[in-house]
UniProtKB/TrEMBL annotation:
Key words of the record: Cell membrane, Membrane, Transmembrane, Transmembrane helix
Record's subcellular location: Cell membrane
Spans traversing the lipid bilayer: 6-22, 133-156, 162-181, 193-213, 246-267, 276-303, 323-343, 364-388, 408-434, 474-492, 498-515, 527-543, 563-583
Highest taxon of source: Archaea
GO CC field: plasma membrane
Chief location bin: membrane
PANTHER family: INNER MEMBRANE PEPTIDE TRANSPORTER, PEPTIDE TRANSPORTER CSTA
Membrane topology type: Multi-pass membrane protein
Protein's name according to its UniProt entry: Carbon starvation protein A
Signal peptide: none
InterPro entries reported for this sequence: CstA (IPR051605), CstA_N (IPR003706)
Domain CstA N-terminal per the UniProt entry, residue ranges: 4-390, 399-536
Length: 613
């Protein structure tokens, strides 16, 4: 057993070295200039292009990227393969690959008028490459919606208190939006009042937990069950349980409606309120681990946790993990956002680049923001390591350990587990709900760019804010109902990290066209690693986990229902489609890089912008 404090200290040391050393080099490499005009100033319009102070933009960016994935991935990987390979991939991969990816995505967008990664790749390789990247990103978004809706349902089943607290939290966010934007009332008093009300909502949740059908065994006896003890007829109820299966469509409908609302109604006030959950949950947990370990060692009762903060999970369960899955390549795509995430390139180039006040702010926001997500992943891994759930319980047992393990950590501050557990569950759910409806919104933006001006009723429906939500929610629901959690999560991780590889490809193409003196190892190296890992993972998931383990398995075919079979088919089609799109884009990008390096006579923009043709 190892004290959890040493895991925190080890990660902090490596992250600090990465920020103080490697990020400084990268900032010089892309020639960030404090005096160069940023897109936020050049195109300031009061809506999208708005300069923001570095601390404010860092908080917004962090809230946008720190969804539920850096919590879910490390927990899943730690339970299957042990905490040592998981912590090593986070501690080493994050500063070398993930933070580099976020930083160069943001920097490339800065030099292209705050445009998206899809726009940038299109500038160098043409419209076909741009559309392929947009389609790839859209399919990834569908997977994001599926896995996050499922995880929220699992947590609501395990912690009905969090379901009540989440309903209160969403209601408070809407009221806060009205308070700020319609009534134009004072900001600071409103912040104090609504943040306090949010924490009161957690307490109310402990008094009035709510479930749709009979919840998990750990749920409080006083849980209000709204629809009785049935629900076996629901799609996915056999593998997920009736209560979890019932919450899934509710969450998908929420994501669809929330994505269609004006941003001031829910998105902006909710993101602001969730930042306080983020700081208190993640920062508090990290501090509590250190304080509790020291307090326990010194015998200081006031800061001694309810149990020793040491790892109960095995360090390593072998190359073939407890679920029968090989460590390579599946560990690396299971811990998706904790180490590297393509979704971040959409945020960095979609909104953050339009708000940078100074170019030099990109280092703290792009590189530093990703390190912050790595700390969240570390906290998640520690919580599961403290509780060590049995893998036989599946993800329905493993995921809620973020709440139960986090509750143990918070006892270092004298917070009872009866409050700490629901609070940490709300922290997890708030990230997931944010990611879910933000993903649906981003998916609509991508489809609008793909369609352009609609020329048919089908195109109009696909680009419509409500029609597009249906386009995303229906395949997401089909994927969820299979009950194959690990396969679904790893399909998402593969797509997300292959998207990261494509963002790194875009940055490499930009650098190659910028100047033939620019080295391409910092972006090209991680790109090659991630293309290799994700391609092998997609092949494994399609050929082994679906075709071999399902359709060529007589026992599975005898028991599988229509939804399970349809879900497996969708997963196979998605895996091969993503693989084709990804490898095609890599080939197109590689050809462009080769042409750029051979064309020594081509004109190149001196400020790192688009090369002249």
């Amino acid at each position: 057993m190892v004290a959890a404090m040493w895991l925190v200290i080890g990660v902090l040391v490596l992250f600090s070295a990465g920020y103080l050393g490697y990020s400084r080099y990268l900032a010089q490499f892309v020639e960030l200039d404090e005096d160069r005009e940023t897109p936020a100033h050049k195109y300031e319009d009061g809506q999208e292009y708005v300069p923001a102070k570095k601390p404010v933009l860092l908080g917004h960016h962090y809230s946008s990227i720190a969804g539920g994935a850096p919590i879910v991935g490390p927990i899943t990987a730690g339970v299957v393969w042990g905490w040592v390979p998981a912590i090593l991939w986070i501690a080493i991969g994050n500063p070398l690959m993930g933070a580099t990816h976020d930083f160069v995505s943001l920097s490339a967008s800065l030099r292209h008028e705050g445009k998206s990664i899809g726009y940038i790749i299109g500038e160098y390789v043409g419209e076909r490459g741009k559309n392929m990247l947009l389609w790839f990103a859209f399919l990834t978004i569908v997977l994001v919606v599926a896995v996050f809706a499922l995880v929220v349902a699992i947590v609501f089943n395990a912690y009905p208190e969090a379901a009540t607290a989440s309903l209160i939290y969403i209601g408070l966010a809407v009221l806060f939006g009205v308070y700020l934007y319609q009534l134009n009332l004072s900001f600071i008093p409103g912040t104090i009042a609504f943040v306090a009300a949010m924490f009161v909502g957690v307490y109310v949740g402990t008094l009035f937990p709510v479930a749709l059908f009979e919840p998990a065994a750990r749920a409080p006896a006083e849980t209000f069950v709204l629809l009785g003890s049935g629900g076996s007829w629901l799609p996915g109820a056999g593998s997920l349980g009736a209560n979890t299966a019932a919450w899934v469509p509710v969450i998908l409908v929420y994501g669809a409606l929330a994505s269609a609302l004006p941003v001031w109604v829910l998105l902006q006030p909710r993101d602001y309120l969730s930042s306080f959950l983020l700081y208190s949950g993640v920062g508090g947990a990290l501090l509590a681990i250190i304080v509790g370990t020291i307090g326990g060692a010194l015998g200081i009762g006031a800061i001694t946790p309810s149990q020793p903060l040491v790892t109960q999970l095995e360090p390593f369960y072998g190359f073939i993990g407890r679920s029968g899955a090989p460590l390579f390549p599946l560990l690396f795509i299971t811990i998706a956002c904790g180490t590297i995430s393509g979704f971040h390139s959409l945020v960095s180039s979609g909104t953050t680049s339009k708000q940078l006040d100074k170019e030099t702010d990109a280092r703290a926001i792009g590189y530093g923001g990703m390190l912050g997500e790595g700390l969240l992943a570390t906290v998640a891994l520690i919580t599961v390591a403290l509780v060590a759930p049995e893998v036989g319980g599946g993800i329905g047992l493993a995921l809620p350990t973020f709440a139960s393990g986090g509750a143990i950590v918070l006892t270092s501050f004298g917070i009872p587990t009866s409050f700490g557990g629901p609070f940490m569950a709300l922290v997890l759910v708030s990230f997931l709900l944010t990611s879910t409806d933000t993903a649906v919104r981003l998916g609509r933006y991508m489809m609008e760019e793909i369609v352009g001006t609609p020329e048919s009723s089908v195109e109009s429906f696909a680009a419509d804010r409500y029609g597009n939500a249906v386009v995303q929610a229906l395949p997401a629901y089909v994927l969820i109902t299979s009950g194959s959690w690990l396969t679904l999560w790893q399909l998402f991780g593969s797509a997300n990290q292959l998207l990261a590889a494509l963002a790194l490809l875009t940055a490499t193409v930009w650098l190659a066209n910028w100047s033939d003196s620019k080295q391409l190892i910092s972006t090209g190296g991680p790109m090659v690693v991630m293309v290799t890992i994700t391609s092998l993972a997609l092949l494994w998931l399609a050929l082994h986990d679906n075709i071999y383990a399902k359709f060529l398995n007589d026992a599975w075919m005898a028991d599988a229902g229509a939804f399970a079979m349809l879900s497996a088919v969708v997963q196979i089609v998605l895996a091969f489609t993503l693989l084709y799109l990804g490898l095609s884009l890599v080939k197109i990008g590689y050809d462009n890089i080769q042409d750029a390096r051979r064309d020594t006579g081509g004109a190149v923009a001196t400020d790192g912008g688009q090369a002249d043709d």
